[in-house]
């Protein structure tokens, strides 16, 4: 018993290597199964978005229900550059990340003056106004959206028509880079200060730090990640419209993935996306054609159950039950002696 | 621009304004008493509208007559939501409260679509339909009914909250829950009551809206977002603030919708909200 539980510090590393290997090799199994491949790609994409949300919402404790906005701005910038100016998606990438980042920082200036629910409502309002502007803005296709020109297959054009596996690896690469970056951030001074913003803003202020500055930095990182995910989405589906990239449901989902998995934890958003995306996709298929939204029925119910019984997310639950097992083992050992 | 036009805009603006105000007062009452924002508030509107519609088409009960019934039903629904869901997250963090009501929002929307489908319904030829012509002014009856009904409901609500013993207890619980408890006020009962009354307010708004607005699973989102803005603009927990901001927003969106653009009529409202909280982060009447 002691042997099996005595190396908890190495367990995450082993798990990481195993999960990493599975993710790398997964396309070998599902490359010729479009449904599964698409779903796996979506899991990676949503996990990336959840990671982005987590920087501000999880580490920084600023709950935003408007993060779909930065995803949408990245997606639209990429689409506009491609459609209107014929810019290669790779060359457009920096600008498509910069636009949502700058917008987010600008928005942060008024919004970070607000606390608690005032902040939540403000993020909602900002995102919703932008959604409404995009639905009437003719230059970007208004409610109909923009369709990207189809270019020859290949890495240069960021378009893969026959075999969609490269999209999977691109999404995996993006998630890996983002997760690594957030891991480093979590251990750095910035990560420490961000958690301090979440836990006790006044204490941080009394030490001479400006919470506003660290919130803005978190917002910028967060929006940049969402923007990059938006670029990927545009190139993946070759289409943008207000509902699919700026809709309110996206903002809610992104926050939900992070919170279900465990807000403020490194792997929470990944776990959240890995549970919820397949659940939604499979239930949609199982009840397809009924047009009755059974997947959302299950979703809503699940969200309530989690909010009531597992408010600190799946990760918190796992680590707590692992902790109590360890404690049980230790006390047993104590009794044995 | 003519006098007739001003009157028409004023009536429909006030009609929408009082409806927003009722929805917002329900929200702010719940928030004031226990610090929870009900993100499923829009779905309460949707349920009230479906109830009004179903009473009309299945039993032929006119919305005017079914209004008390819908209000009573929504009051009970508010109690159920409190006892089944909200009570369990009261001790939790803000994020678990947000997500409990968000889950309820998603669930109710999906449930409505599951039962009724995604089709749009409308209450046709009810008693409160058609127009009134007075001196060249054409006023839709449902708008007049909205002004009269919603302002009447607001007055009754004010009497309930500020002139009755239950209202005093509610306000006491919202000002200081612990002190209220030492005075023998049952906090949990007051919480439940706040949810009941909050939902009942929405019931009035929904019943009036059903006379002139389409009914579909996502209809709540249209109204509730502006109600959130009204609550934040007025100051979370402030009933006066919600009333004033609700009426202001109703007038604003009708005037802007007429003169500028009907698609963008909400954007200036949002900008106004952001401008106000930039100066006063607690809203117009919020407590700090």
UniProtKB/TrEMBL annotation, chain A:
It is found in: Cell membrane. GO terms for molecular function: branched-chain amino acid transmembrane transporter activity. It is a multi-pass membrane protein. One of its GO terms (cellular component) is plasma membrane. Keywords: Cell membrane, Membrane, Transmembrane, Transmembrane helix. InterPro entries: ABC_transp_permease, LivM-like. Its main location: membrane. The chain crosses the membrane at residues 12-31, 93-112, 166-185, 213-232, 252-279, 291-309. This is Amino acid ABC transporter permease.
From TrEMBL, chain B:
GO terms for biological process: amino acid transport. This is Branched-chain amino acid ABC transporter permease. It comes from the Bacteria. Pfam families: BPD_transp_2. It comes from Reyranella soli. InterPro entries: ABC_transp_permease, BCAA_transport_permease. Keywords: Amino-acid transport, Cell membrane, Membrane, Transmembrane, Transmembrane helix, Transport. Belongs to the binding-protein-dependent transport system permease family. LivHM subfamily. It is found in: Cell membrane. GO terms for cellular component: plasma membrane. It is a multi-pass membrane protein. One of its GO terms (molecular function) is transmembrane transporter activity. The chain crosses the membrane at residues 6-32, 44-61, 67-86, 98-123, 143-162, 183-209, 215-236, 243-261, 267-285. Its main location: membrane. Coiled coil: none annotated.
């Amino acid at each position: 018993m002691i042997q099996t539980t005595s190396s908890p510090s190495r367990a995450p590393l082993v798990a990481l290597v195993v999960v990493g290997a599975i993710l790398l090799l997964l396309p070998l199994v599902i490359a010729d199964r479009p449904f599964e491949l698409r779903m796996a790609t979506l899991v990676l994409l949503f996990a990336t978005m959840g990671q982005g949300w987590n920087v501000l919402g999880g580490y920084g404790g600023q709950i935003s229900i408007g993060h779909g906005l930065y995803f949408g701005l990245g997606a639209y910038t990429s689409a506009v550059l491609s459609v209107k100016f014929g810019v290669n998606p790779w060359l457009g990438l920096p600008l498509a990340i910069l636009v949502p980042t700058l917008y987010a920082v600008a928005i942060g200036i008024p919004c970070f003056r607000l606390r608690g629910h005032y902040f939540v409502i403000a993020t909602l309002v900002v995102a919703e106004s932008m959604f409404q502007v995009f639905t009437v803005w003719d230059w970007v296709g208004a409610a109909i959206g923009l369709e990207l020109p189809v270019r020859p297959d290949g890495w240069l054009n960021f378009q893969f028509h026959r075999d969609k596996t490269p999209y999977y690896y691109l999404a995996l690469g993006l998630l890996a880079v983002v997760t690594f970056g957030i891991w480093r951030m979590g251990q750095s001074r910035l990560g420490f200060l961000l958690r301090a913003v979440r836990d006790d803003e006044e204490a941080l202020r009394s030490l001479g730090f400006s919470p506003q500055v660290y919130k803005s930095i978190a917002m910028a990182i967060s929006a940049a990640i969402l923007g990059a995910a938006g670029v990927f989405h545009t190139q993946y589906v070759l289409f943008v419209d207000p509902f699919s990239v700026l809709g309110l449901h996206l903002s809610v989902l992104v926050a939900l993935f992070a919170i279900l998995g465990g807000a403020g934890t490194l792997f929470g958003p990944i776990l959240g996306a890995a549970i919820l995306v397949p659940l939604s996709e499979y239930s949609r298929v199982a009840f397809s054609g009924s047009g009755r939204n059974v997947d959302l029925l299950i979703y809503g119910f699940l969200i309530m159950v989690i909010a009531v019984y597992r408010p600190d997310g799946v990760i918190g639950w796992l680590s707590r039950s692992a902790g109590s097992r360890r404690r049980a083992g230790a006390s047993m050992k104590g009794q044995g002696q | 621009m003519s006098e007739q036009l001003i009157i028409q805009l004023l009536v429909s603006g006030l009609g929408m304004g009082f409806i927003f105000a009722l929805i917002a007062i329900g929200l702010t009452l719940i928030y004031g008493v226990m610090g929870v924002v009900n993100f499923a508030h829009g779905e309460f509107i949707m349920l009230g509208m479906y109830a009004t519609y179903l009473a009309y088409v299945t039993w032929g009960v006119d919305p005017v007559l079914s209004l008390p019934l819908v209000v009573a039903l929504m009051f009970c629904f508010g109690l159920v939501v409190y006892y089944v869901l909200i009570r369990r997250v009261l001790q939790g963090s803000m994020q678990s409260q947000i997500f409990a009501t968000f889950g309820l929002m998603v669930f109710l929307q999906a449930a409505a679509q599951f039962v009724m489908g995604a089709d749009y319904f409308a209450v046709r030829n009810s008693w409160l339909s058609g127009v009134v012509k007075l001196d060249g002014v054409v006023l839709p009856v449902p708008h007049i009914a909205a002004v009269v009904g919603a302002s009447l409901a607001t007055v009754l609500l004010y009497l309930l909250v500020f002139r009755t013993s239950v209202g005093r207890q509610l306000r006491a619980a919202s000002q200081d829950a612990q002190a209220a408890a030492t005075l023998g006020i049952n906090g949990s009962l007051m919480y439940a009551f706040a949810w009941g009354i909050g939902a009942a307010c929405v019931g009035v708004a929904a019943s009036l809206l059903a006379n002139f607005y389409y009914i579909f699973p996502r209809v709540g989102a249209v109204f509730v977002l502006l109600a959130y803005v009204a609550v934040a603009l007025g100051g979370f927990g402030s009933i006066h603030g919600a009333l004033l901001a609700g009426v202001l927003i109703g007038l604003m969106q009708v005037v802007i919708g007429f003169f500028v653009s009907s698609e963008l009529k909400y954007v200036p409202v949002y900008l106004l909200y952001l401008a106000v909280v930039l100066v006063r982060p607690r809203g117009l009447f919020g407590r700090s």
